Structure formats: C-alpha cells, structure tokens
Amino acid sequence: MSEETTTEPIDQPQDTSLEAKIEEMTEKYHLAIADMENMRKRLMNEQKEAIQFAKERLILEFITPLDCLEKALSYEAHMSSEVQQWAFGFKMILEQFKDILRNNHIYSFEPIHEQFDPRSHDAIEMVASDKEPGTILEVLAKGYKNGPRILRAAQVKVAKAKPEEKDQGEN
User: Fold this and answer.
1) β-pairing, 106-109 with 121-129?
2) Cα(124)–Cα(154) distance, integer angstroms
3) β-pairing, 121-129 with 154-161?
4) In this model, does residue 141 exceed pLDDT 80?
5) What is the pLDDT of residues 98-136, one digit of tens each?
6) Crossing angle of helices 81-103 and 8-73, rounded to 10°
7) In whole angstroms, what is the distance from residue 109 CA to residue 137 CA?
8) CATH architecture of 107-163
9) Which has the closest alpha carbon to 138: 119, 118, 124?
10) Which helix (H) or strand (E) holds 159?
11) Full-prediction pTM beyond 0.90?
12) Positive or negative CA dihedral for 30, 32, 33, 39?
C-alpha cells in the first residue's frame, strides 16, 4: 500500500480561485456603489436646475406687469391729489414685489451710457448721435438678472455714427 494521499495540491487552486472571485465581486460592488452615488448627485443637480428654471419662468411672467405698474407710477406728478394718494399705496405694493425679487436674487439693471453688449442688451433702435457708436442712449425696458445669468435682456436705444455729409457742389 504505497498510496499516499495529499490534499494540498487540490485545495491550493480552489483557494486562489475563490479569493480572486471575492476580490472581483468586491471591486464590482464598490463600482456599483460609486455609480449609484454619482447618479444620486446628478439627479439632485438636475432637480435643483429644474426648480430654478421653473422659478425663473414664473418670475419672468410677473416682470412685464411690474414694469407697466412702475411706468404708470412714474407719471405721479401729473396726477390729481386723490389719484396721487392711490399711487402712494400702489408704490408700496410695487416695493413689496421688488423685495420679493431681491429675496430671490433677481436684480434689475439699466445700462444707460454703457457700451452695447448683445449678451445682455436688445437693441431696439439705433440713433445717429455725437456719442461713441455702440453707447446706450436710452433704456426702454430694464433687464433682469439672476446672479450672473440674464433672465431678460435690457431693451435699449444705441448710438450709431452720424452719416457724413457729402459736398453738394460735386456731382
């Protein structure tokens, strides 16, 4: 009976195989956890952006009527005394709306005498002027920003160079 049995050679490959599988599964588990965390963060950012976009759209709906109210109240000096008292109350309401805009980091801007910038200004009209071409001469409607982001561009009149007069003696 010369048969000797050894179990070591058979057990050895199984241990390394199991350890490799465990290591592989652990790595896959960690990758899956990282993917889930990245997806959660991305979804949270997308949700914040969607809420911000909805808020900005709603605020834009209110800006035009507020501009109209502000424009109407600018004629207060030409109103009767009774209407001026009403106007005082409406000015208080207008200030409350402006406070709401400020609390939501929405600010108006009037770029009078600045250089025209197509990213934040809409040129409604170009007027021949002695001023440097591209200078904003008049603001027809204020612009609005949410931080650095433009919600509504300011509508402006922009200076252009005066046309040079031709000599009338030459034909």
Assistant:
1) unpaired
2) 10
3) parallel
4) yes
5) 999 999 899 999 999 999 999 999 999 999 988 999 999
6) 170
7) 15
8) Roll (2.30)
9) 124
10) strand 154-161
11) no
12) positive
Give 68-125 as a DSSP string.
HHHHHHTTGGGS-HHHHHHHHHHHHHHHHHHHHHHHTTEEEE--TTSBP-TTTEEEEE
Share of the chain above pLDDT 70, in %: 87
Instruction: Give the mean pLDDT of 159-163.
Output: 87
Q: How far apart are CA 146 and CA 49, in angstroms?
A: 13
User: Token pair of 38, please?
Assistant: 């990245």
Domain segments of the chain as ranges: 20-104, 107-163
Beta bridge partner(s), residue 165 = none
Buried b (16+ CB within 10 A) or exposed e, 23-44: eeeeeeeeeeeeeeeeeeeeee
- 8 A C-beta contact, residue 138 and residue 156: yes
HSE, CB side, 13 Å, CA atoms: give it for residue 29. 6
Tokens 């005066």 map to which residue?
162
| Token pair of 118 as six digits | 């197509």
For residue 12, the one-letter residue type is Q
Phi/psi at 146 (nearest 5 deg)? -115, 95
